[in-house]
Amino acid sequence: MRYLSTRGHADRKQFCEILLEGLAPDGGLYLPERYPQLGPAELQNLRQVWQSQGYAALAFEVLSLYIDDIPRDDLKALCQKTYTSAVFGTPEIVPLKPLKRAGQSQAELLLEALSNGPTLAFKDMAMQLLGNLFEYELARRGETLNILGATSGDTGSAAEYAMRGKKGVRVFMTSPHGRMSPFQQAQMFSLLDENIHNMAIEGVFDDCQDIVKAVSNDLAFKQRYKIGTVNSINWARLLAQVVYYFAGYFQATQSDLQKVSFTVPSGNFGNVCAGHVARMMGLPIDRLVVATNENDVLDEFFRTGVYRVRGTADTHETSSPSMDISKASNFERFVFDLLDRDGVTTKEIFGAGLQQKGCFDLSADPRFAKAAAVFGFESGRSTHSDRLKTIQQVYANYGVMIDTHTADGVKVAQEHLKPDVPMVVLETALPIKFAATIVQALGRQPDRPPQFEGIEALPKRVHVMKADVNLVKAFIQQHCD
Ligand SMILES: *Cc1c(COP(=O)(O)O)cnc(C)c1O
Asked: How many domains does the chain have?
């Protein structure tokens, strides 16, 4: 399998070449040259693998369709090492939880539990694999990598828990000082591993992101200190997420003739883009429903055909903060497919066009209609009061406590139900990560998994510093030389 850029660059690359890279040289995102097609026999085989051998074996089967430059036995071992019940809490790894009223035979919705990994958000599903892939590939090349990132919460902790103790990798993570939830701060700052470095920046998330960009734009520094990233445009992260659409589908159905829809709480469009890839491979997905919060760039696109990036001032700070985005960094992948893989137009609208105008309009393009008709996309949005209501309703009706992001998903899913098509909502985090809103909705503290008892009291290691790129560079130098 070779990979190409969404902006039409002539290069074709192998999986391990793009594994440690961010964007393609022309600023595009990598996608496979074609999606492997699964017929009835292959689907049946995958269902059997899932049923008889479980998640890690299913992951190996799906990944091996896309990765041919890691020996099969090694890839299998990496999957087995990643997806264990010790790391993800249950032997099923991603069990389905039916939301069913007492006495009713049919569930209204199914929640796919993706948030029982080390940091209690779905990002662990991909990041844990990425950690093992990085360690493997860096050892094979005899190289090292320093991951520099900015986080407002979920990504940073998922990256640190995935990379802690890994050979050849260091993590330098910036976060806005005092702005993450106490639980998130405790999660990250209590990591004492030698290769994990937390920098709390006196500023907001955008200051952190600006610093990361400034460091990455200093090419000499970037090369000398082997700076890399783990952001959500990484193809390996997206690929790892494709697997749980299969596992969700197999659990929700008895036969491959049935269809299932998925609703996905969305921000940067990585999670739902993995669903798009699974659907393109032939997994019988009826619809992919994109759920946003007040930051509704994506909902607006699917309703109108207009993609309008928001400025910092127009980006709302919400109670589902991991979906507070002004533009969706993975969206270009879907638009490339929507435009029949027309790299010239993709380059035009996402490159200079978006930078100058801040928007593009496909409403008059006949291909826009295919988003719903051919690719199965629908969308909806949710607000803070919707979240509170949904958290209350799901708790009262089904006895299940959901987090604020999952609540955005449930709210929108309820508006897109169809008889006879099961609806799976991806559970993207556990409520304990966003306790303040749960208390507001339910008047009680969320349940806390036992392994997180008392983490706020653990010793912390974090370096507080001014929002100054030179201080960050000096800190990196000091810990690398
Ligand atoms: C990252 C995140 C999302 C958004 O996922 P995307 O892949 O960026 O669309 C939603 N919910 C939670 C809890 C997250 O951490």
From this structure: 1
CATH number at residue 288: 3.40.50.1100
Question: Rounded to two decimals, what is the model's pTM?
Answer: 0.96
CB count in 10 Å sphere of residue 149: 20
Kindly state whether residue 14 falls inside one of the protein's structural domains: no
What is the secondary structure of 168-214 as a DSSP string? TEEEEEEEETTTS-HHHHHHHHT---TTEEEEEEES-HHHHHHHHHH
CB 298 within 8 A of CB 408: no
Nearest to 70 by CA among 168, 23, 140, 126: 140
pLDDT digits (tens, 9 = 90+) for 121-171: 999 999 999 999 999 999 999 999 999 999 987 899 999 999 999 999 999
Within a domain: residue 185?
A: no
Q: In whole angstroms, what is the distance from residue 316 CA to residue 221 CA?
A: 34
Q: What CA–CA distances, in Å, run from 26 to 11, 13, 23, 369, 370?
A: 10, 14, 8, 28, 27
For residue 140, tell me if it sits in a domain: no
Partners of 175 in the beta sheet? Answer: 200
Q: Are 37 and 65 a contacting pair, CB within 8 Å?
A: no
Active site residues: 123
Residue type at 290 in one-letter notation: V
Which numbered atom of ligand 1 lies nearest the CA of 158? 15
Distance CA 351, CA 335 (A): 13
Domain region containing 297 = 109-117+235-442
Residues 29 and 3: their CA atoms lie apart, in Å, by 10
Is residue 9 one of the residues assigned to a domain?
A: no
pLDDT tens string 228-269: 888 888 999 999 999 999 999 999 999 999 999 999 999 999
Q: How far is CA 389 from CA 3, 379, 397, 442, in A?
A: 44, 19, 12, 10
User: Does the beta carbon of 428 sit less than 6 angstroms from any atom of ligand 1?
Assistant: yes
Alpha carbons 338 and 377: distance in angstroms, whole number: 11
Whose C-alpha lies nearest to ligand 1, atom 8? 268
Return the structure tokens found at 70.
Answer: 């890691």
How many angstroms separate the CA atoms of 480 and 248, rounded? 42
Ligand 1 neighbour 380 (Cβ under 6 A): no
pLDDT digits (tens, 9 = 90+) for 309-339: 988 788 888 999 999 888 898 999 999 999 9
Instruction: Give the C-alpha separation, 318 to 295, whole Å.
Output: 8
For the record, the structure tokens of 296 come out as 């509704």
For a substitution probing ligand 1, which of 115, 116, 123, 318 has the most ligand atoms within 8 Å of its CB?
Answer: 123
